[in-house]
Structure formats: C-alpha cells, structure tokens
Amino acid sequence: xxxxxxxxxxxxxxxxxxxxxxxxxxxxxxxxxxxxxxxxxxxxxxxxxxxxxxxxxxxxxxxxxxxxxxxxxxxxxxxxxxxxxxxxxxxxxxxxxxxxxxxxxxxxxxxxxxxxxxxxxxxxxxxxxxxxxxxxxxxxxxxxxxxxxxxxxxxxxxxxxxxxxxxxxxxxxxxxxxxxxxxxxxxxxxxxxxxxxxxxxxxxxxxxxxxxxxxxxxxxxxx
Length: 223
Prior knowledge:
- The chain has one domain (49-219).
- The protein is 29% helix and 28% strand.
- The strands form two sheets. A six-stranded antiparallel beta sheet has the order 5-4-3-2-1-8. Strands 7-6-9-10 form a four-stranded antiparallel beta sheet, with helices on one face.
- It has helices at residues 2-12, 16-68, and strands at 82-85, 101-107, 121-128, 134-139, 157-161, 164-173, 178-180, 183-184, 196-204, 211-219.
- With 223 residues, the chain is an alpha+beta fold.
C-alpha cells in the first residue's frame, strides 16, 4: 500500500523536461502577446499624432480665416494697411521668421472681452519661426490706436500651433486676375485688399518624417 501511494505521488510531479516545455510555451505566448500589444499601441500613437496634427492645423486655419474675413482698410488713415511679405523679402519685424508673413488691421471687436477697448479695430498678423512654431500677432487698444507695425509687435505674438514646417501665402489680385506673392495696400496695390488669400501650412508629425499639407482659400468681403 505504501509503495502504491509513493508511486502515485511521484507521478503527480513534473519532470524537468515538462517544466522546460511549459516555460517555453509560456514564453512564446507572452512574447506573442507583447508583440501584438506593442503593434496596437504603436498604431494608436500614430493615429493620435496624426489626428492631433490635423486638429491643430485646422484650428490654426480657422483662426487665420476668421481674422482675414475681418480685414479692414481706411483710405483716410495711411497707418491702416494690409501687408503681405514673401519669405525672400521679409518685414524684419519678427525675430527668427522663417517663411511668408502677413500683417493687417481687422475689425475683431475686442470690446466683447474688454469694455475698455478704444475701438473694434486691432492689429493682426501671422508668421512662422525657425523652431516650427506658428504665431498670431494680436493687439487691441485701450487708448487712441497706432496701427503702424514694427519690431515692437514681436512682443504681441501668441503661439497657436507647433510642428509647422511651412507657411505660404498668396494673394488674388482682382485687377490682374492673378495670384501675387506679396501685397501692399499702401504701395503696389494702393487702397485695395486682396479678393482672396490662399493659405498653405505644412505640419510634421512628432517623431516621424511625414508631413501633412493643408490649403484653404479665404475670401475677403468687399468693404
């Protein structure tokens, strides 16, 4: 009887080979699960990065669109101008500016947020720096305004998007029925706003060489 119990006890144990086989099978399963999980996580992160870049770019373009549709000129005030600069001949006002620049006066009605605002007109502008940040220039006045732009307006910039690798602007001249790369309402296009501005921005996905390009045409109402 004692021998039978001993034999049964011995048969219940696992041999070294069986333990090794189980360990190998477990390792294979664990590795497979890790590979699958890692692939799913990588795909999710890429999708999130793609969506984030797309969302940031669209928000930036929406802001540019809102400001441009409120662009304003006043023939009686030479300081109220619409100036578009090409990347080859920038304004010199914005430190580390990398691409095209745009500066104008817009009826953005800051009184909605500040009852002390002197006028509904504001300075507005856009540029990209060499660190791939897209900036909006914005300034409203609580005293008699000076709409002349200068290097001092660099302090009125606000970052609205990161990982932006290109900002390109073109202006539709209704007089010549053609796009131009610059605009000066006090010079070549005296007293006129462009009928439309084509805005192109390219955004780079973090930790990836891939870029996405977004283009929108903003029509400026005649005033």
